[in-house]
Amino acid sequence: MNGEIDVKRLALLASRTDRAMAAAAELREHFDFVSLERAAAVVVLGGDGFMLHTLHRMLDRGTVLPAYGMNCGTVGFLMNRYRNPAKLAERLAKARDFQIAPLRMEAIQQDGKRHIACAINEVSLLRETRQTAKIEIVLDGKTRLKELVCDGVLLATPAGSTAYNLSANGPILPLDSQLLALTPISPFRPRRWSGAVLPERSRVSFKVNEPAKRPVSVVADQKEFRDIAEVHLEIARENQLTLLFDPGHALDERIVAEQFAV
């Protein structure tokens, strides 16, 4: 990593699972941890969901620290393996740092209420009822798709391209690609439209057609808002995050490896 982390100024956050709490107890036998307010970096124990929760917590507090995750969950795509708690300092000294810029979302509900949120993985629009959604897609002020009839549509960052985006048959994006994945969810019309890969400088807007008959919700990572009229998205460079990975287990390597998984 660029710049050595002071191991005497590490914060520790653990999910409430038995596995994560046991790992936290082991680490506390070897290190004295401090509060987030005094920390130079944070060690995160849990799965990808808890890592996302932690990153959002730091964004909300305005205290964004380098985060080193150790997997005590299921997939652990954003995490390192949990092992050798006594060697945490050595692992941090060798860790590679990766910068991730989240999406900034402005969502406008049918009653005019506005909501601002950040998404590290993706922002997805989803139909609320049995009726398919009808969504207009606008890129940099120009309508590119007048009406997408679908279950939904999502915009994913490279870090999130192997999550919901991949399940919806979207492309996997290398971390340094400076691209975004625009992916339909169960498209009905145009049936053959499979989405688009966009420059990350793009400003993407979604406008909901026939919202009274076909209501749509929006989800930015873990935050959901219902009865949406419009959603506006762009990369939030001012909210850049730093994830730390062991050599050979970095996020860019995992993104490449995922494309050869069978």
List the helices and strands and how they pair.
Layout: E1 10-14, H1 18-28, E2 41-46, H2 48-61, E3 67-71, E4 80-81, H3 88-94, E5 96-100, E6 103-109, E7 114-119, E8 122-127, E9 133-139, E10 142-150, E11 152-156, H4 164-167, E12 179-185, E13 196-199, E14 204-209, E15 216-220, E16 223-225, E17 228-235, E18 241-245, H5 251-258
Parallel strand pairs: 1-2, 2-3, 3-4, 3-18
Antiparallel strand pairs: 5-18, 6-7, 6-17, 8-11, 8-15, 9-10, 9-14, 11-12, 12-13, 14-17, 15-16
Detailed description of the structure:
InterPro entries: ATP-NAD_kinase_N, ATP-NAD_kinase_PpnK-typ_C, NAD/diacylglycerol_kinase_sf, NADK. Involved in the regulation of the intracellular balance of NAD and NADP, and is a key enzyme in the biosynthesis of NADP. Catalyzes specifically the phosphorylation on 2'-hydroxyl of the adenosine moiety of NAD to yield NADP. By secondary structure, the protein is an alpha+beta fold. The chain folds into 2 domains: 7-101 and 240-258, Rossmann fold (3-Layer(aba) Sandwich), CATH 3.40.50; 103-238, Sandwich (Tumour Suppressor Smad4). The protein is 17% helix and 39% strand. The protein has 5 helices and 18 strands. It has helices at residues 18-28, 48-61, 88-94, 164-167, 251-258; strands at residues 10-14, 41-46, 67-71, 80-81, 96-100, 103-109, 114-119, 122-127, 133-139, 142-150, 152-156, 179-185, 196-199, 204-209, 216-220, 223-225, 228-235, 241-245. Strands 1, 2, 3, 4, 5 and 18 form a 6-stranded mixed beta sheet that branches. Strands 7-6-17-14-9-10 form a 6-stranded antiparallel beta sheet, with no helix packed on it. A hairpin with a 4-residue loop joins strand 6 (103-109) and strand 7. It is elongated, with a radius of gyration of 20 Å. The two termini are 32 Å apart. The model has no long low-confidence stretch (mean pLDDT 92).
